[in-house]
Amino acid sequence: MIKKTVPNVEEALKGVANGMTFMLGGFGLCGIPENAIAELVKLGVKDITCISNNAGVDDFGLGLLLHNKQIKKMVSSYVGENDEFERQMLSGELEVELTPQGTLAEKCRAAQAGFPAFYTPAGYGTEVAEGKETREFDGKMYVLEPAFKADFSFVKAWKGDEAGNLIFKGTARNFNPCMCGAAKITVAEVEELLPAGSLDPNEIHIPGIFVQRIFQGEHYEKRIEQRTVRAKA
Amino acid sequence: MLDKNGIAQRIAKEVKDGYYVNLGIGIPTLVANFVREDISVEFQSENGVLGMGPFPFEGEEDADIINAGKQTITTLPGASFFDSALSFGMIRGQHVDLTILGAMEVAENGDIANWKIPGKMVKGMGGAMDLVASAENIIVAMMHTNKAGKSKLLKRCTLPLTGVGCVKKIVTNLAVLEVTPDGFKLLERAPGISTQEIERATEGNLIIEGNIPEMVL
């Protein structure tokens, strides 16, 4: 067994530096790497590029890094829940690259799986395709999209083991598996870190080969953006 | 004239037994409330769930189980969770049978604009561009005119496009229309709405053939 555990978030984030590109898992605030984000805030790394489907809310998630003006560029599909984001974007302090959600996921997966680029129909004929190579296959038009290149991936899983194997829960899975192994170093934080052999190999979502560092996360807040309920009959 | 629930109720009749359906935010979300109970349908949410159920009872919310609108949801027997790449694989690979989404503008050639208004804060396209580029069966749910009273069914879209030549059917508060090579073909009128009223509210080419029946909800 190749051990991937590190004792804490400080060790897990060793090597992060100004100007780097990071992938961060999560959809809205669901399944975000809360511990890694908190540590990035603490470290104060600047001029970073974040590849993340969303940009958090004003006082949580990536909103914390925005608040500190640590982010130079966001690559996202939807960024609508954040006033500070809007302010920085409109003032030109923050560069934003909007990417269709499926293309964003596939650009991660392509990096993970060793594809330099892929053709997708998403965005053909729209401003997203401007300046990009297009090609027809079987009478339909497609846009060539390159794989992402990133320095670190920060992902959050439900359970993990010493070997770096991961299991996700519910829709907190989202972009997290696609980002594993898609950057030079993948850092996984988990709600429950278990000894090797505790997880059934049949039920692993992401094998440890895609993870370089794994640590036991702490104090998960798991904030809900839109609490919607129905009345009991 | 239909209200938002009426539009959703009419669209629900397009949902057939055995369909996997992706519902967008807004009016499309309401469609789930009107689908017949004697047919088997599974709702997909692109953040990674098939087999979505109703909202949870108070106290039973789970932060790890949400829909693409970031609302807490439940799952039904037979449900599954998956990652975002697989989710859009389902969409791009045309395994999802029906996509229902809202729009700001639809053109008579099937172009759709629903993500960006120049000069206003751009929130992003989310999964809309992937959905419209890939789905074989797209129904747009929207009001026939905007708040200023201007038609949303146009010759050409004026707003930045989400996708080209992709919309097949439109259900509005006034009518059901099909996008054909010659323009918007009027299929049904909303209760109490005349063909003249629909003509006045439609900027794009409107095709009226024979007697147009009133919708049955």
TrEMBL record, chain A:
SUPFAM superfamilies: NagB/RpiA/CoA transferase-like. The keyword Repeat does not apply. GO terms for molecular function: CoA-transferase activity. The keyword Acyltransferase does not apply. It comes from the Bacteria. InterPro entries: 3-oxoacid_CoA-transf_A, CoA_trans_fam_I, CoA_transf_BS, NagB/RpiA_transferase-like. It holds the Pfam family CoA_trans. Keywords: Transferase. Belongs to the 3-oxoacid CoA-transferase subunit A family. This is 3-oxoacid CoA-transferase subunit A. It comes from Flagellimonas meridianipacifica.
TrEMBL record, chain B:
Belongs to the 3-oxoacid CoA-transferase subunit B family. Keywords: Transferase. GO terms for molecular function: CoA-transferase activity. The keyword Transferase applies. This is 3-oxoacid CoA-transferase subunit B.
